[in-house]
């Protein structure tokens, strides 16, 4: 799976919605950024895309 964050729109740790919701801990934190640290664990549940308020996370199979 490919999981990408658009940093032009992402609010980082002020949001953390995708990180908090992901059931398989795909996301991590680096400084004030949310990063994709574990894309291999993604189950394509689409929760992160559905909840992102900034439309900043994209998941591709
Ligand atoms: S839910 Fe969207 S805005 Fe929030 S941290 Fe994740 S990618 Fe960024
Ligand atoms: S699609 Fe689901 S499993 Fe994959 S990164 Fe988003 S929340 Fe996590």
Describe the structure.
One of its GO terms (molecular function) is 4 iron, 4 sulfur cluster binding. The chain has 2 helices and 4 strands; from the N terminus they run E-H-E-E-H-E. The protein has 61 residues and is α+β, with helices and mostly antiparallel strands. The protein has one domain: Alpha-Beta Plaits, CATH 3.30.70. The strands form 2 sheets. The chain has a two-stranded antiparallel ribbon. The longest helix is centred in the first third of the chain and has 5 residues, at 17-21. The structure holds iron/sulfur cluster (2 copies).
Helix content: 10-25%
Quickly count the domains: 1
Q: How would you name the oligomeric state of the polypeptide chains in this document?
A: single chain
Count of helical regions: 2
Summarize the main sheet.
2 strands, antiparallel
Keywords: 4Fe-4S, Iron, Iron-sulfur, Metal-binding
GO molecular function, one term: 4 iron, 4 sulfur cluster binding
Pfam families: Fer4_10 (PF13237)
Protein name: 4Fe-4S ferredoxin iron-sulfur binding domain protein
Helix and strand arrangement:
Elements lengths: L1 E4 L11 H5 L5 E4 L2 E4 L10 H5 L5 E4 L1
Antiparallel strand pairs: 1-4, 2-3
One iron/sulfur cluster (SF4) binds next to α2.
Descriptive tags:
iron; 26% strand; 61 residues; two-stranded antiparallel ribbon; alpha+beta; Alpha-Beta Plaits; globular; metal-binding; oxidoreductase activity; binds iron/sulfur cluster
In short:
The protein has 61 residues and is an alpha+beta fold.
């Amino acid at each position: 799976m490919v999981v990408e964050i658009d940093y032009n729109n992402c609010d980082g740790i002020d949001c953390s919605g995708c990180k908090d919701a992901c059931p398989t801990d795909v996301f991590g934190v680096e400084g004030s950024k949310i990063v994709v640290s574990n894309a291999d664990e993604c189950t394509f549940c689409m929760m992160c895309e559905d909840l992102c308020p900034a439309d900043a996370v994209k998941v591709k199979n």
